[in-house]
Design a protein that fits this description.
The structure holds two protein chains of two kinds.
Chain A (H helix, E strand, L loop, with lengths): L12 E14 L2 E14 L3 E5 L6 H8 L7 E6 L2 E2 L5 H11 E4 L11 H11 L4 H14 L15 H13 L5 E5 L7 H16 L3 E5 L3 H4 L4 E6 L2 E6 L1 H12 L1
Parallel strand pairs in A: 3-8, 3-9, 6-7, 7-8
Antiparallel strand pairs in A: 1-2, 1-4, 4-5, 9-10
Helix pairs in contact in A: 3-4, 3-5, 4-5, 5-6
Chain B lengths: L1 H20 L1 H37 L5 E5 L10 H4 L8 H11 L5 E16 L2 E11 L3 H4 L4 E4 L4 H5 L4 E4 L1 H7 L9 E4 L2 E9 L14 E5 H8 L5 E8 L5 H16 L10 E3 L1 H44 L1 H9 L4 H37 L9 H27 L3 H6 L2
Parallel strand pairs in B: 3-8, 5-7
Antiparallel strand pairs in B: 1-9, 1-10, 2-3, 2-6, 2-9, 4-7, 5-8, 6-7
The chains are: A alpha/beta, B alpha+beta.
């Protein structure tokens, strides 16, 4: 048996984009942020999107996160055409299918951890009791079972990012989209967060990481490198590593 | 649907938290609404008071009394057609009563003559001028709506015998006899002494409309004996059996009066039948224009308050752009964001409304205590109206900023610093 088979993605395709472009009109000029990107992401993949600033990685992330729609091309999310969706349908996809983790955490400053994590459940129409139960469970999952009623300013940076990750997880989304999740953390705390993401991946979550740090990207199994709005490389760096480990046995 | 209610309850909580965390700002903004609501509510109570005052003054006339006079109360453009009509004589009352008595199914009960002059009234050194002095029969109490506070109305015998007795209004009694009872005392009217047999209850006056309080009533024969001048104006008051059949009663009275006046069938009426309702309808436009002008002017202050709310909601949206972006990323729909900010501005306005209403209530109490006669009337309807106005103000002033927030592009909002 080919040892590669065991580490190739097997799950169903979650994200399928084909030849998407995105143009912005900035005054007189039109900026071509994406010039034709195609990508297939399977369930339970751990993917890093890399690239220098201006490469279009933020645009691609916004696109994948259904915060924005492409100018042209095709985008299917779990078989549903995103390009045709209106604002409310996009909001519903973001609510149920995507868990966002931001560089700046984006927690509501005056709400407790529990309330912050409950937010996506409110928008999903979950009743208050279930909401609290599930939010508490998600916080325990990220190791914050004893910080339920703390407000963001009473938590350390790493803890804040954990709350944000719990919030991303609470609606059991198809993908977790992390935009520079360690960008505002020191390297030790950053490593802890990466370890947490690794655990989530091992539990079967699909993780898309956007970063410009190769140290961080190294945690992913697959790396997509963007330059000038095009995919420059799409290689299984992690796979190579695992392959190397496998071959060494 | 369930989600909608969760979102709404969440929005109220956010609004409350938002107000608590920006206390100074919320208070100052709410102050605009408070002032607006106080102004509008007080104006409302004044308008209500004017209405109540009109109604009270009107009630002197009696709902079920028809007045036979030369001219109609309603304003006419051809007064010259009425001026030269024959005078109404007090003797018509007797003729009318005979005719009414002969008709068992009459809608009318009794006709009472009344004739009046403005006189000065004296007691010792005290003088009051401009007193409406009325001569009538003892049946007058049937058409009157005010009771005696003290003493009694003059009786039939006194009336017939032209006794020098009188019933005086509350203010007249108050002015001439500041201390002690006036019943049994004497007053001098136009040089002739009259004995006071009764004092009327206080009725209150409003905008100088007629009031019982500055009136003197005496028997008609006595009036004729001492004040018989052509200047005296006479009328006949007819009490109606059933006030719901006022129109029929009026028709009947017209017929009787035509007989009294001896008019041929083709001749026009040369008298007018007046009633409270007709008078009200001429006063209503006045009252309404006072109300509209007053509410418009005070409404302006509420409008300024609303602009304050709109402004602060815009600031709030701007400040929390990133939060809006986050909420959108987490699945908040446009409607959710719109609701959130609408509820925030409405909560502010409601708070202002409550405080404003409480203030208005206190001011009303104070004014009523200080000046009893000042017409103020804070009704339940007014309370509800001002709460509704607060909510409407919140919704209208919050709409533009909330709409801006709802339409924010999530990518731009998330990137906003």
């Amino acid at each position: 048996m080919d040892p590669l088979d065991s580490i190739r993605p097997h799950g169903p395709i979650v994200i399928d984009i084909e030849n998407i472009t995105k143009n912005y009109v900035m005054g007189e000029e039109t900026v071509h942020a994406l010039r034709g990107v195609s990508l297939k992401i399977h369930r339970n993949e751990y993917l890093a999107i890399m690239g220098p600033s201006g490469s279009g990685k933020s645009t691609l992330m916004n696109m994948l996160g259904c915060l924005d729609t492409p100018s042209s091309g095709r985008y299917d999310f779990s078989g549903k055409n995103v390009k045709e969706m209106d604002d409310d349908e996009l909001a519903a996809i973001r609510n149920r299918e995507i868990g966002f983790v931001f560089q700046t955490f984006n927690l509501l400053p005056r709400s407790t951890s529990l309330k912050n994590v409950e937010l996506p459940l409110i928008y999903a129409g979950v009743d208050p009791d279930t909401r609290e139960e599930r939010a508490a469970e998600a916080l325990r999952d990220v190791g914050l079972g004893d910080r339920l009623s703390h407000k963001p300013n009473e938590l350390s940076g790493g803890q804040r990012q954990r709350v944000a990750i719990a919030r991303a997880l609470v609606n059991r989304p198809s993908i977790i989209l992390a935009d520079e999740p360690t960008g505002n953390l020191d390297s030790k705390t950053g490593e802890e967060i990466m370890a947490l993401l690794e655990t989530l991946y091992e539990r079967g979550n699909t993780i898309i990481l956007v970063t410009h740090e190769s140290d961080i990207a190294r945690h992913a199994r697959r790396t997509v490198f963007l330059r000038d709005g095009l995919i420059e490389s799409d290689d299984y760096a992690g796979r190579d590593r695992e392959f190397a480990e496998l071959s060494a046995r | 649907m369930k989600r909608f209610w969760y979102e709404i309850s969440e929005s109220w909580k956010i609004a409350a938290a938002q107000m608590l965390s920006n206390k100074t700002r919320s208070t100052l903004t709410a102050l605009g609404v408070i002032i607006g609501i106080v102004a509008v509510t007080l104006m409302g109570t004044a308008v209500n008071g004017i209405q109540a005052g009109f109604d009270k003054s009107m009630s002197v006339l009696g709902e079920d009394v028809l007045y036979v006079q030369k001219e109609p109360w309603a304003r006419v453009n051809d007064w010259w057609n009425y001026r030269n009509r024959k005078k109404i004589e007090t003797s018509y009352a007797e003729q009318l009563n005979r005719m009414i008595g002969a008709m068992p199914n009459s809608n009318l009960i009794i006709a009472v003559p009344a004739t009046s002059l403005i006189q000065s009234v004296k007691h010792d050194d005290a003088v009051v001028n401009g007193i409406f002095t009325l001569g009538t029969t003892s049946d007058f109490i049937l058409t009157s709506t005010v009771d005696c506070k003290e003493g009694r109305f003059f009786n039939e015998i006194e009336a017939r015998d032209a006794s020098e007795v009188c019933v005086i209004g509350y203010d007249v009694a108050d002015a001439l006899f500041p201390s002690g009872s006036s019943v049994g005392q004497r007053v001098t009217i136009n040089g002739h002494p009259f004995k006071i047999v009764g004092v009327n209850n206080r009725q209150g006056t409003f905008l100088g409309l007629f009031s019982w309080d500055s009136m003197i009533v005496m028997p008609l024969p006595a009036f004729k004996k001492y004040f018989n001048t052509p200047k005296a104006e006479s009328d006949v008051r007819v009490k109606v059996k059933d006030k719901t059949k006022l129109a029929e009663a009026k028709d009947e009275l017209v017929g009787l009066m035509r007989r009294v006046r001896g008019l041929s069938p083709e001749a026009k009426d040369d008298f007018a039948i007046n009633e409270q309702q007709a008078f009200k309808s001429t006063l209503d436009p006045v009252k309404n224009s006072i109300a509209i002008a007053g509410l418009f002017i005070t409404g302006l202050s509420l409008f300024v308050g609303a602009i304050g709310i709109m402004n602060i909601t815009f600031v709030s949206v701007k400040e929390r752009t990133k939060e809006i972006g986050t909420r959108k990323a987490l699945g908040a729909r446009r409607r959710t964001i719109l609701l959130q900010f609408l509820i925030e501005s409405t909560a502010l306005c409601l708070l202002g409304g409550f405080i404003g209403l409480a203030f208005a209530f206190l001011v009303c109490m104070g004014i009523t205590r200080a000046f009893e006669s000042f017409p103020l009337h804070l009704s339940m309807g007014l309370v509800i109206t001002s709460m509704v106005v607060s909510v409407m103000t919140g919704l209208l002033s919050g709409f533009a900023p909330a709409w801006t927030a709802a339409r924010l592009d999530p990518v731009t909002a998330l990137r906003y610093e």
